[in-house]
Design brief:
One of its GO terms (cellular component) is plasma membrane. This protein is mostly helical. The protein has one domain: Rhodopsin 7-helix transmembrane proteins (Rhopdopsin 7-helix transmembrane proteins). It is built from 13 helices and no strands. The longest helix is centred in the middle third of the chain and has 45 residues. The termini are far apart. About 8% of the residues have low confidence.
């Protein structure tokens, strides 16, 4: 890969991910503090959501490193493992937490009378471990031998480190940083074999996404049916044309459907497109990480990381401490302005 091209791609990654990552981290911190300060929210459903926010916070921290997984860098074997395994684990745990939150709410809506009897509610620690331990185990498989790192590459990495130490800080592998021979360096192809990537994409990521969409669609269908029953009962009691209350319920449902559809288009579609583009590039044996793939990676992962924030904004209890703080700041600023303007 050309030095200029890689430098431009690094700048592009920073330009896209830095503001998005900062917004995700700051917003999640505020919501986490709001939930922690409100004792009324200290129950099982909100603990699941709190775990999701922590995972989303970690995803925001890892966001600048995820597009870099497609670049070719001169790193030794342990460092190469770390820069690939750790971001992959954080993103998988985020997706597992997102599935668990939707599953818990799905059970609460579909089976409201028997919700407390399900294992998700009765065995909360087990459910919490189920969204963190399996992603860690799967992401760590390359560290236990499922990788394409050969003995020759390991020897080259050790020789490069030794040369670096002997030169007292002069990078011995600098002449390799922009070589076209990708087999000598750290890239995702050396850490993640093709079967590993295919299993993750088609065995974990896409099934998780489609399960979330299926549960959301089922909840909307149940909501629509209940709304229709309420409207029929209302008409039988009022024995007149559609009431204002019925109009209000239909409007709220329409807003809910519009929000879900918009969330799917803005948050899910970019990531699904990125997954398929990545698989096509992998099948084509592309050696370069194109700017288009980097943009898709940043926007796809970043848009998914916004989903917990959207869910938080839909619950006024989560944002109440922040809104109260903003009101106090606004009031104090208004008082200061009034004192400074005696007229």
């Amino acid at each position: 890969m050309d030095c200029v091209d890689q430098s431009e791609q690094e700048k592009l990654i920073i330009f896209i991910t830095l503001p998005l990552s900062s917004i995700i981290i700051l917003t999640n911190l505020l919501i986490i503090i709001g939930i922690a300060c409100n004792r009324q929210l200290h129950d099982t459903p909100n603990y699941f959501f709190l775990s999701l926010l922590v995972a989303d916070l970690c995803t925001g921290l890892a966001l600048p490193f995820i597009p870099r997984m497609g670049l070719v860098r001169s790193l030794n074997f342990p460092s190469c493992l770390l820069v690939h395994i750790f971001p992959n684990f954080l993103f998988l745990s985020f997706l597992f937490n997102l599935v668990m939150v939707h599953y818990e709410r799905y059970l609460c809506i579909v089976h409201p009378l028997h919700y407390s009897q399900f294992w998700v509610h009765r065995c909360f620690p087990v459910a919490l471990l189920a969204v963190w331990i399996p992603p860690l185990l799967y992401a760590s498989l390359p560290a236990f031998g499922w990788n394409n790192w050969t003995e020759k590459q390991l020897n080259l990495s050790l020789d490069a480190n030794t040369s670096y130490i002997l030169r007292k800080g002069e990078p011995a592998v600098s002449e390799h940083n922009c070589s076209n021979d990708e087999q000598d360096y750290c890239s995702y192809k050396q850490i993640f074999p093709k079967p590993f990537i295919y299993l993750e994409v088609y065995g974990l990521l896409l099934p998780a996404i489609f399960s979330i969409l299926a549960m959301t669609g089922r909840v909307l269908w149940i909501t629509r049916k209940q709304l229709s029953d309420i409207c029929k009962l209302n008409r039988s009691v009022m024995s007149s044309e559609t009431s204002e209350h019925e109009h209000h319920l239909n409007l709220r449902y329409a807003k809910c459907v519009a929000l879900v559809s918009l969330t799917f288009l803005v948050c899910w579609v970019p990531y699904i497109v990125y997954l398929h583009v990545s698989v096509v590039l992998l099948q084509g044996g592309e050696k370069r990480s194109s700017s288009l793939n980097i943009i898709l990676s940043c926007t796809g992962v970043g848009s998914m990381a916004v989903i917990p924030i959207i869910l938080s904004l839909a619950n006024r209890q989560y944002t109440e401490p922040v809104r109260n703080l903003l009101k106090k700041i606004r009031t104090r600023c208004a008082r200061i302005q009034d004192l400074g303007d005696p007229s």
